[in-house]
Design brief:
The structure is a homotetramer. Chain A is of the alpha/beta class. Chain A has two domains: about 1-65, Alpha-Beta Plaits, CATH 3.30.70.1140; about 85-330, Aldolase class I (TIM Barrel, Alpha-Beta Barrel). Helices cover about 35% and strands about 20% of the residues of chain A. The first copy, chain A, contains eleven helices and 14 strands. In chain A, the strands form three sheets. Chain A has an eight-stranded parallel beta barrel with strand order 7-8-9-10-11-12-13-14, surrounded by seven helices. In chain A, strands 2-3-1-4 form a four-stranded antiparallel sheet. In chain A, strand 7, helix 3 (about 105-120) and strand 8 form a beta-alpha-beta unit. In chain A, helix 3 (about 105-120) packs parallel to helix 11, helix 6 (about 190-200) packs across helix 7 and helix 10 packs parallel to helix 11. Chains in contact: A-B, A-C, A-D, B-C, B-D, C-D. The interface of A and B includes residues 211, 260, 278 and 287 of A.
Chain lengths: ~350, ~350, ~350, ~350
């Protein structure tokens, strides 16, 4: 359910409506579409209040059936959105493979991996410069230095760069050097960070939280869109369930379900879902077969000495081998990989 | 961990070992391989008892690293098992599509659906004659009459028949008419039923329980194998998680994980996983891309008037369309669909 | 939502209504209250069909807000139901403790345990005679012999007996000797078994399935009630979640939630929830503090040599000690333990 | 498993050991106890590396059985830790009730609520000044102004104040005014924030994440302790499962399990677990019965007009009524509430 407010509604009326809903236990998402404010009611909460809300000053209309994420909804825009990442189109016929090491470790390493994955058909380079740290002695990422190495690898290969941003205060710096900003699973509901990436123009790669529902993913995307940036790509990367044979449970259904509900591109990250190199190839193929617009994988020149996530990183030859499989699968579903 | 018993061990010694383990909280699986009894310890329980067990009368040796399901383990048999279902080989290069209505409703209906899916490339006919009933007024299945209709459809089309058996006392009857016996998700740990299907010679299609781990699936398969029937095919059909956008969460990773751990064929059932016709095609494709040896789907000539599971059943043209997609995907992963 | 049928509705009309709902993907529960048939729609499915259903022959009225389990619902009966188990009242002010070994192992053992727990304040004796078997060498339970030993222990102590029944064909035998029939968690949705216990007069202890929702528990109870037996006691015993520190996650909220939704008594089984003796005492206390009408615990004279579930069984002194704690807690919440 | 490093080990050797473990897929926690560095291996990962690690320069010894959170472990300190919150002792015989509104809304409101809960026996005042915001029109909390109002309410009533801190940059400000800093469930693994609260002297109330295991809670606590602050109180507040009848599933077993594994105090938050006022009383009682050292509840003078979380807030008379129940339960388990 969406409450559409009148144009020119006063701040006071807006706040009164929002608080009325929240006081009655309603959870909501406020979204600005051009001049018009939309308030989406989440989870069916407070739908019983429709009549009362309708009567409040400033309310234009109520859309009972509309999902609470107006801008990212497929109802709002029927055609697929194509997000341009420095001239690589994500969400069009091409299935875009994004590859690179978990962490940028040195100029030599990133140059080596970037050159190799570019040759095998990757279209975007991934690599971490800022890592969420769990120990002060763990590799923390190279920070700005790492961003510069990524930029140099981009110059060398022509591949645009996606890298994670973990704190609001780093957004500006990361956006200066990267072509797309990644929001990690742990930060999917870090609203301060979502606001910041929503207020800058580079595209955003938004990963699903480990225990987030599909609706929550779409609400987080709406949050970014509502802050001004509709260039959002969603990423399924596994959820936490009772099953312990894999690190997370790769929810491949999320791909077609998201594609039904939103016009935004949807990609998959089989490396983090499985946590095991030997599963990356089949899960990447499954994601594409299910309709994913892209794949994000970890690749390392020497996984056994990688400074992070070695066990789930593909080797360079492993990546090349996987690409040949994925090209066939993309082809089978009417898409292509270059 | 597996405890291998000496050949000719007495019943008394066997029971003493089993009870010693169980008294110490160990959960176990007893499996007979030819003349030798293997006791598999589940979940790491009681591994601390290894030394004490080793010293008990009748113990031959202990394999610390072996999984508790010896016969179905990939360690026991490196090559893929190919299960022959009335001359259709499941587990070989061909990806075997099994299709048909949730329930057999009439001779006309099953004949119509069977003829159509056969023409589109299905290799095995599915159809329910005995349904787990939740209301006395719900359609209960046609019982033996339904089995005869399935048999007639087999004669007409040449497609072998798989159908569910829900009670131990029905095993003999169902096995007389069907070419493969299906154990439904709710019965995966119905040990009496597993014993019965394990004691007859027709192949068994064993569906994963809605909250069963992959290890539990393999233990259930071992149970059937230990009763004498190693012709078992496993089926992923969705697990229960916090996500509510789909009826169950289709755990596509289970396919490659099972293929690593067991030599048995593994298929997927996207119809029950998703509970929604529009998701069947992408999930079937995902399953094959991930390495499944087959797909089980519900197809109905008129889903809107189906007596059960209409909303998740494909139409006949929908099935034909899906097959053309699946052939491409099978091809892309080095398999084929006829 | 409940569809109330007209008295004297024809079987044909009944079946037509049920099938119309099921064909549209609706899941339902048919419940007979005296002369009137109620069809409960589950999970909000098919609520959109209300107008069409209303117009069908044989439909008397539609209750939009009613839960799909009419007889067990608190709306049907505002006052708590008190279930009489051979003169022990469950669901009244007394908190009823049911204790005994997992399995009856011998006449001496059950007599010893029964005598001891009776003296410490247990009011009902539990003990397994038929066990769901996972290995042919595991202790299978003593069967009818075990039932006779339980009966003898009842004669000795005056404690009524509750014991599990695992197969429809055993219901009559178990009901001859026991005072209450227990349906285990694995059988909560074994509808054939539910029908059988619903068709005999002894009270039924119905355990929640490991991955069953609270609504599903209530539907299973309605199924028993609809078969003619409304003397049902519900039991929370842990659900499967991502947490592995305990065997299952003891969902203590289920107690007050169930007490709000149903008039039936609700008890807890901390032994199976935790799988660890050291947690039984705090969880039993938590259950009573949350409003449970009773507690079911495993007690053994020598847990280290118990033939099943030793690690979660209390010792005799441990039980006595727990009872003194539980008496205080029961008292604190306005209940009592004798 | 814990790797104990030699005193005076070089930074280079430390980093080499950490990276060796991480390169082999090991997840770890580095903890400083006085002069000695402890590296805890998480989840059994990399235990196979023990011999290799043992041989590395700078390694003093390996404790195979030790949990990876040395300082907060019960093995490290057998006696319960008592955390002093401005002279209120948490973790001793008294069960400490912390109460107040979700959000501080005005000086009048917080004064009214504080006065009332103090009189009914609350020992610590809770109230949010900084709220994680999901909409710009939602009530954002009063920020520093709210902190001052809390401080005034403390002066009025003598109740120490606990309030949430949501960003590292706010830690200093919040610590100036509050007596205990709360880390919310969404921030349980926000390591930057954990570092900040670990580097200041006020006690920390650490809430379990919605999908965090008990081991992860203890690792987060170790992280705070390792940054220098061992005055940590843990809080169970519900986890995400398949059950939808309650907002989250209140994992009451976490209380006794945590009390076994750690010497830190453990409290429960039934308001957020249930999301429903009518469940707060039974769940608070259950928590205390299970051994909780305290209870955190939301109380509002007029829940129907509360600016946040009204539906789960107790009324002032509701709180008073609950306290009389909780006193009895505390007494029954050998504790007390003043």
């Amino acid at each position: 359910m969406i409450v559409v407010l009148a144009q020119g509604v006063s701040l006071k009326d807006k706040a009164a409506i929002v608080r009325f809903i929240e006081q009655h236990g309603g959870r909501l998402m406020v979204s600005e579409l051009g001049e018009t404010t939309h308030i989406g009611l989440i989870d069916g909460t407070a739908q019983a209040l429709a009549a009362q809300i309708r009567a409040m000053p400033g309310v234009e209309s109520i859309k009972s059936e509309a999902p609470p994420y107006p801008q990212v909804s497929r109802e709002y825009r029927e055609a697929n959105s194509v997000v341009d990442v420095a001239d690589v189109a994500v969400g069009a016929a091409e299935v875009v493979v994004m590859a690179g090491p978990c962490s940028v470790e040195s100029a030599t390493q990133i140059s080596l991996v970037a050159g190799s994955v570019a040759q095998s058909g990757a279209r975007i380079l991934r690599g971490g410069a800022f890592k969420p740290r769990t120990s002060p002695y763990s590799f923390q990422g190279l920070g700005e230095e790492g961003l510069l190495m990524l930029a140099a690898a981009r110059d060398q290969t022509g591949l645009p760069v996606v890298t994670e941003v973990v704190a609001p205060e780093d957004v500006e710096l990361v956006a200066t050097h990267a072509d797309m900003l990644q929001i990690g699973a742990r930060n999917m509901q870090n609203f301060r960070l979502l606001s910041e990436v929503g207020a800058q123009p580079k595209p955003v790669l938004l990963k699903r939280g480990i225990s987030s529902t599909i609706e929550e993913v779409l609400l987080a995307a709406e949050y970014v869109a509502s802050a001004g940036n509709t260039r959002v790509i969603l990423c399924e990367r596994g959820i936490r369930t009772f099953e312990t044979a894999t690190r997370n449970t790769f929810d491949v259904s999320a791909v077609p379900v998201l594609k039904q509900k939103t016009h935004l591109p949807v990609i998959v990250d089989p490396s983090h879902a499985a946590g095991d190199r030997s599963l990356v190839r089949p899960l990447a193929a499954a994601g594409i077969a299910a309709g994913a617009d892209g794949v994000l994988v970890e690749v390392h020149n020497d996984p056994d000495s990688a400074l992070s996530d070695g066990p789930q990183s593909l080797t360079l030859p492993g990546f090349t081998e996987m690409m040949s499989l994925l090209k066939g699968v993309a082809d089978a579903v009417g898409r292509f990989i270059r």
